[in-house]
């Protein structure tokens, strides 16, 4: 079930939130602590205003809520709200048996027994969940993973407690995969927001329902994803999930924030993932965990696509292909004979290789000159420092920006001072924002522009084929 956490401070604004999200949700949580005091008193009437089953929650400040009432007054408020027909009531782990619990049981309202940890994952999480469930209630643990190892631990605990009726929430960015894969983790529901997250890391109800189709995940669903750090800005989940949907392919693709590639591979095994994309800064780091790599990966030295093969993981590179597609005609027609490539990171490795493979003369500029030198030697091209960019003004047909400078949220900076003549093709591989400072300067001079989103889509389309064995559906491109 997808449960919308209502964030309004009046009952009517909560009702509006339900109306706006009705088609995406199975139930909603009324957070009494977020309501104005006058509205709190009318909460018992709320269930009769909507057809959506409701959870009643009055969250204390120490558990991440706003309720600062004494425990006696809090109980009174919950008791009077329980006059309404709520389907569930949330009672914290440490609250002793009292009249709220008794009233809920008499009325057949299911009890969710919850605990929260905003600093990490408690060592005794397993036994606490187990103990809470023993009374026949639904155990809820909202904890805060800080590493990919923490996320793996949460999935493992969920598996060990597979027969327990429970809700396990990973708060914050590290927990997003377990919020989306809540069914895989055996949680009866996942909490969603309507726009502004009420708890850290909440995903919108619309995305959970339409983009991830999180409530459709079953034993046969193929799990795919993207690893990176940062990674939550990427549009890859959009490309792949829309593609899966268009061809009725039972699969899901989601972002994984990663700090340790080795442990991510353990998680990928655990989740029986079928493949994943690799982004900044892991395109080199994944290589040592692959049992097989393509000729391109070997020559480029970077991998952005990993696919499960019998008994091993295979690494491929679709960046070089995606980069070339938008400018292939210009290379083949002879318009692009020389290029200046700014940056010498993972993406640049694929781009320089692609251009050299097509016979384009390349000069690489990079902040760390040793990295530019190394890449230039491998690909038989020239290199220079970023400060010498002016030496190439008016002398190249194509200027490619491949560094992460200008990437959201720092979009008003460019890695180089370069005066375009207007005859160059300017290509920035950053896709968020679409129009970077580098491209704005090229546009002012009258250059032809190419955008990171073109490369992203083309490399994603090839990746989709490698993941699924199917062409990327044309109708999916139109809805991107
Ligand atoms: P990477 O391997 O970490 O390389 C980063 C590059 O940026 C290096 O050349 C680095 O220079 C340079 N750099 C970073 N901070 C800098 C600064 N403050 N000043 C000057 N140079 C700086 O990353 P990557 O995988 O190549 O990705 C780079 C960018 O390309 C990212 O924004 C990524 O999102 C984008 N990308 C887009 C696509 C697409 O499909 N459109 C595909 C792949 C990547 P040093 O060597 O000196 O550190």
Round the Cα radius of gyration to an integer and report it. 26 Å
**Shape annotation:** elongated
| Uncertain residue ranges | none
Major β-sheet annotation: 9 strands, parallel
Number of strands: 21
**Separation of the first and last Cα atoms:** 27 Å
Strand order of the largest sheet: 7-6-5-4-3-2-1-8-9
Helix percentage range: 25-40%
Q: Report the β-strand fraction as a percent range.
A: 15-25%
Structural class: alpha/beta
- DSSP helix count? 18
Q: Calculate the mean pLDDT score and round it.
A: 96
Small molecules (ligands, ions, cofactors) in the structure = NADP nicotinamide-adenine-dinucleotide phosphate
Short structural summary:
The chain has 480 residues and is α/β, with parallel strands linked by helices. It has 18 helices and 21 strands.
Give structural notes.
With 480 residues, the chain is α/β, with parallel strands linked by helices. The chain is built from 18 helices and 21 strands. The chain has helices spanning 11-21, 37-40, 71-81, 99-107, 125-134, 148-160, 176-180, 205-211, 236-246, 261-270, 295-300, 319-324, 328-332, 346-357, 369-379, 437-445, 452-468, 474-478; strands at 2-5, 27-31, 54-57, 88-92, 110-116, 138-143, 166-170, 190-193, 203-204, 222-228, 251-257, 275-278, 292-293, 305-309, 312-316, 338-342, 361-366, 382-385, 398-401, 425-428, 448-450. A nine-stranded parallel sheet has the order 7-6-5-4-3-2-1-8-9. α15 links the parallel β17 (361-366) and β18. α6 (148-160) packs parallel to α10 and α9 (236-246) packs across α17 (452-468). The longest helix has 17 residues, at 452-468. It is elongated and about 80 Å long. The two termini are 27 Å apart. The mean pLDDT is 96. The chain binds NADP nicotinamide-adenine-dinucleotide phosphate (NAP).
């Amino acid at each position: 079930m997808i449960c919308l956490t209502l964030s309004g401070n009046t009952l009517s604004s909560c009702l509006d939130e339900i109306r706006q999200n009705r088609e995406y949700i199975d139930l909603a949580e009324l957070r009494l602590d977020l309501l104005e005091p006058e509205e709190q008193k009318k909460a018992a009437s709320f269930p009769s205003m909507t057809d959506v089953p409701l959870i009643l929650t009055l969250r204390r400040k120490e558990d991440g809520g706003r309720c600062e009432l004494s425990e006696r007054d809090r109980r009174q408020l919950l008791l009077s709200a329980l006059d309404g027909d709520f389907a569930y009531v949330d009672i914290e782990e440490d609250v002793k048996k009292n009249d709220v619990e008794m009233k809920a049981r008499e009325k057949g309202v299911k009890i969710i027994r919850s605990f929260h940890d905003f600093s990490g994952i408690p060592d005794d999480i397993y036994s606490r969940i187990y103990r809470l469930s023993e009374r026949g209630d639904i155990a809820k643990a909202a904890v805060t993973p800080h590493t990919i190892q923490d996320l793996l631990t949460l999935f493992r605990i969920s598996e060990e407690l597979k027969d327990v009726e429970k809700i396990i929430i990973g708060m914050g960015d590290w927990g997003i995969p377990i919020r989306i894969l809540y069914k895989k983790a055996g949680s009866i529901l996942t909490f969603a927001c309507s726009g502004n997250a009420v708890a850290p890391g909440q995903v919108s109800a619309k995305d959970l329902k339409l983009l991830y189709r999180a409530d459709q995940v079953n034993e046969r669903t193929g799990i795919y994803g993207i690893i990176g750090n940062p990674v939550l800005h990427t549009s890859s989940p959009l490309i792949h999930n829309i593609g899966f949907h268009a061809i009725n392919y039972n699969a899901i693709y989601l972002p994984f924030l990663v700090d340790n590639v080795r442990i991510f591979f353990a998680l990928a095994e655990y989740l029986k993932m079928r493949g994943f994309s690799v982004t900044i800064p892991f395109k080199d780091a994944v290589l040592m965990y692959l049992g097989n790599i393509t000729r391109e990966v070997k020559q480029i030295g970077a991998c952005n696509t990993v696919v499960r093969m019998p008994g091993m993981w295979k690494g491929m590179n679709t960046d070089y292909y995606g980069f070339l597609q938008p400018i292939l005609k210009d290379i083949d027609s002879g318009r692009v004979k020389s290029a200046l490539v700014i940056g010498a990171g993972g993406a640049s490795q694929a781009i320089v290789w692609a251009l050299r493979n097509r016979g384009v003369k390349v000069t690489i500029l990079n902040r760390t000159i040793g990295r530019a030198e190394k890449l230039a030697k491998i690909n038989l091209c020239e290199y220079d420092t970023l400060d010498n960019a002016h030496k190439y003004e008016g002398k190249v047909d194509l200027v490619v920006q491949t560094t992460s400078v200008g990437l959201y949220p720092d979009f008003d900076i460019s890695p180089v001072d370069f005066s375009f003549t207007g005859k160059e093709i300017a290509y920035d591989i950053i896709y968020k924002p679409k129009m970077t400072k580098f491209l704005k300067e090229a546009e002012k001079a009258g250059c032809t522009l190419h955008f990171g989103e073109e490369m992203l889509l083309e490399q994603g389309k090839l990746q989709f084929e490698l993941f699924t064995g199917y062409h990327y559906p044309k109708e999916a491109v139109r809805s991107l």
